[in-house]
## 1
Amino acid sequence: MSKTDARKIDALDQWCLRMLLGIRWYQFVRNDDVRKLTKQPKLTAIIQLRRLTLFGHIMRMDDNADAKRILLAPLQQTGEDNWVVPASHGSAPSNRI
């Protein structure tokens, strides 16, 4: 997640909290005060915690698990911002029914 995306997510989260509390745009209430009132952490902090939890879950999986193989697959850069898993990595997909 980029810093820009994180700022947008936190701004939306803050706006939603203000709407739930009925705080109007012209009322002067600090963002920290809204957080203290709701006892809610920033949404990006929750996302980060859940991403780390998922990473730990995947790393404890069997080495042959698809999720772990995908996570640990080497990446190749195809352009300035484009990264892909090379086609030669892993086995060919099976035609399961």
## 2
Amino acid sequence: MATRAVKMNDESQGGSGSELTRRVGGTIENTKTFLQETRVEMKKVTWPTREDVVATTGVVLATVAFFAVYLFLVEQGATRFITYLFHKFGI
């Protein structure tokens, strides 16, 4: 945060070159800084093990399959009920 404050003070004082040159140069420097900080943060990430990923994927697939069957049955029941009502009232 202190680094950004210093950069902002340096940029706000003006300098040589046009406004466009300053903006483009700042954008390139900001991009470099962002990529360096991203690389540092990605090294801090604790990645899951293969076993964790496989187990979690299994749970997700089982849950999706369960709800797919459940919603299919609910839809079939609702369709049959509505069809029954239509026949009952002659619609």
